[in-house]
Design goal:
The chain is of the alpha+beta class. The chain contains two helices and four strands. Strands 1-2 form a two-stranded parallel sheet. It is globular and about 30 Å long. The two termini are about 20 Å apart.
Length: about 80
């Protein structure tokens, strides 16, 4: 799992990722403005071959969080049930 950010505040983004359980070596920093997104945040679930399997735009609602966890668990080969 990686967190990719184009924020100009790398320290804050790395601290946020760490609070989510994402190791700082799994945080990728891009130049601000280097990627064009229609909404922020964007969460992409990508399989081992690099294929994007799911995309969610904007802050997820509580009802969407279970869907996200299930999709990520399925890609990771674990179960959330």
């Amino acid at each position: 799992m990686y967190l990719v950010t184009a924020s100009s505040d790398a320290v804050t983004e790395t601290a946020y990722a760490t609070s989510l359980g994402i190791h700082e070596q799994q945080v990728r920093h891009l130049s601000p403005g280097s990627i064009r997104l229609r909404a922020v945040p964007v969460l992409m679930a990508v399989d081992a071959s690099g294929t994007i399997r799911h995309v969610w735009f904007g802050a997820p609602k509580a009802s969407t969080q279970a869907e996200i966890l299930e999709a990520v668990a399925a890609l990771a080969g674990t179960s959330q049930r």
